[in-house]
Amino acid sequence: MSVISRGFGGRGDNDDARIPPGQHETYDFPVLSAGPTPAVSREEWGLDVTDLDGAVTRWGWPDLMRAPSEEFTVDIHCVTTWSKLDTSWRGVRVRDVLGDLATEAEYALVRCYGGYTTNLPIGDLVDRDAWIAYEYEGDDLESAHGGPARLLVPHLYLWKSAKWINGIELHLDDEPGFWETLGYHEYGDPWLEQRYVGD
Amino acid sequence: MHEDNDHRVDGNAAAGILREVFASDVTTARVVCGHCTAGTSVAETKTYLAGPGSILRCPGCDAILARITKIRDTVWLDLSGSASWQIHTG
């Protein structure tokens, strides 16, 4: 009889069912970045929501703090094949940020400090779990992990959960983002292994 | 404006993926930044390898010079951030 230690995670036997195909569990929180880590204070931080007609609604940090927030625990999955279970965050639901603006738009292009972009269907931001997250494991979100605030859309590969978010543009058509223009999947469902274009 | 712990290495670390594209070692090539027009050797670029692809940035202004991904047996290459590349073949 062989005994396999699961370490000190204290998790149950169903963890494997929570790991999408082609992924492995990690207990670290790897930092993946395409550039220097932007140093943005909460005072400087802003989120521009751009409607279909080009009108911009700017959210500052006090606006984010006044919005209803919630604590949530989710599993996250990076396209580089690591998954991390039971990560705890605090944030504001994207649907509460977009409000009535998203009623006609079909897609969103998310922009970030540092120039990163990624694209998602609006439905994934307003009808599914999606947050502007600003706390991780009870502490202010570190800049290395996207602080002061990042997008978190746990049902898609983590490149969609843009760090250092500073804008959400609403569009009728899908406009590929930073990695989506270089061969990565336009949607990125980890359970369907939608890593690359054509998957 | 940026933190020091940003996990960059020098451009020599991108030699492998670049060799697949150009069939030669281009780390000694000279690349001109399309943003600030500064010239540098590929080896001296700020290179980020930890993400889904490889990103080479200008050591002067941090603008992206090249983006490279390997999607199965296909390399995707975006050099739109650079003004020119001088690759010595002799």
From TrEMBL, chain A:
<protein>
    <submittedName>
        <fullName>DMSO/TMAO reductase YedYZ molybdopterin-dependent catalytic subunit</fullName>
    </submittedName>
</protein>
<dbReference type="InterPro" id="IPR036374">
    <property type="entry name" value="OxRdtase_Mopterin-bd_sf"/>
</dbReference>
<dbReference type="Pfam" id="PF00174">
    <property type="entry name" value="Oxidored_molyb"/>
</dbReference>
<feature type="region of interest" description="Disordered">
    <location>
        <begin position="1"/>
        <end position="33"/>
    </location>
</feature>
<dbReference type="InterPro" id="IPR000572">
    <property type="entry name" value="OxRdtase_Mopterin-bd_dom"/>
</dbReference>
<feature type="domain" description="Oxidoreductase molybdopterin-binding">
    <location>
        <begin position="35"/>
        <end position="179"/>
    </location>
</feature>
Automatic annotation (TrEMBL), chain B:
<dbReference type="Pfam" id="PF20120">
    <property type="entry name" value="DUF6510"/>
</dbReference>
<dbReference type="InterPro" id="IPR045423">
    <property type="entry name" value="DUF6510"/>
</dbReference>
<protein>
    <submittedName>
        <fullName>Uncharacterized protein</fullName>
    </submittedName>
</protein>
